[in-house]
Specification:
The structure holds 2 protein chains of 2 kinds.
Chain A: E1 5-7, E2 10-13, E3 19-24, E4 31-37, E5 43-50, E6 65-69, E7 75-79, E8 88-95, E9 108-109, E10 113-117
Chain B: E1 4-5, E2 10-14, E3 19-25, E4 30-38, E5 45-51, E6 56-59, E7 62-67, E8 72-77, E9 86-94, E10 104-105, E11 109-114
Parallel strand pairs in B: 2-11
Antiparallel strand pairs in B: 1-3, 3-8, 4-5, 4-9, 6-7, 7-8, 9-10, 9-11
Classes of the chains: A mainly beta, B mainly beta.
Chain lengths: 118, 115
């Protein structure tokens, strides 16, 4: 597609439930990222996928969070047993490659999935 | 531990005047800096960037200045337009450990340009 697509745009869930957030990156982009923005905070790095390499999961806040990228394209971020502190906007981004984020290789973000945990 | 700081949560300027948004960083390994702009209900969009080998980069009405010794950068918008009203995020990356794909963002500054 023309841009990065994320679904759902809004998700309200009860504490303890599992949620899945989906990201469809720009076609041809080999690098995919998940960030989240909690209220009043900057964007926080969660995970990075580059081609067939092992993902960088160093930003995942707990083992309740996991992500996968199937076929080098669509990615799903899963949060198990959601907690209220998981409430945030989850942003997905993609780029041509993960190296040298400049020129034509800048991150393009989706509109985000707003998660509210009651 | 905030490595990228935007100390002004908001800024209000008059249309036609200059907007100056500031950003400070603490990690000396950062060597690439970016500004992103975000409208409500949209994802951030790339605005302008600067490498640490430069001290200035200009793109139309937008200029980014980098002062490495002070670990400070600023974004100048001249002249400011009402359509510039948005949240502006400063971000940085570094090649420490070979990973320059990870951006560290500030909390953002809400710019309001009044007609």
């Amino acid at each position: 597609g023309a841009g990065v697509s994320q679904s759902p745009s809004n998700k309200v869930t009860e504490k303890g439930k599992d949620v899945e957030l989906r990201c469809d990156p720009i076609s041809g982009h080999t690098a995919l990222y998940w960030y989240r923005q909690s209220l009043g905070q900057g964007l926080e790095f969660l995970i990075y996928f580059q081609g067939n390499s092992a993902p960088d999961k160093s930003g995942l806040p707990s083992d309740r969070f996991s992500a996968e990228r199937t076929g080098g394209s669509v990615s799903t971020l899963t949060i198990q047993r959601t907690q209220q502190e998981d409430s945030a906007v989850y942003l997905c981004a993609s780029s041509l490659t993960g190296n040298n984020l400049s020129g034509a290789n800048v991150l393009t973000f989706g509109a985000g999935s707003r998660l509210t945990v009651l | 531990d905030q490595q990228v700081k935007q100390n002004s949560p908001s800024l209000s300027v008059q249309e036609g005047r200059i907007s100056i948004l500031n950003c400070d960083y603490t990690n000396s390994m950062f060597d690439y800096f970016l500004w992103y702009k975000k409208y409500p209900a949209e994802g951030p969009t790339f605005l302008i960037s600067i490498s640490s080998i430069k001290d200035k980069n200009e793109d139309g009405r937008f200029t980014v200045f980098l002062n490495k010794s002070a670990k400070h950068l600023s974004l100048h918008i001249v002249p400011s337009q009402p359509g510039d009203s948005a949240v502006y995020f400063c971000a940085a990356s570094g090649k420490s450990g070979g990973s320059n794909y990870k951006l560290t963002f500030g909390k953002g500054t809400l710019l309001t340009v009044n007609p």
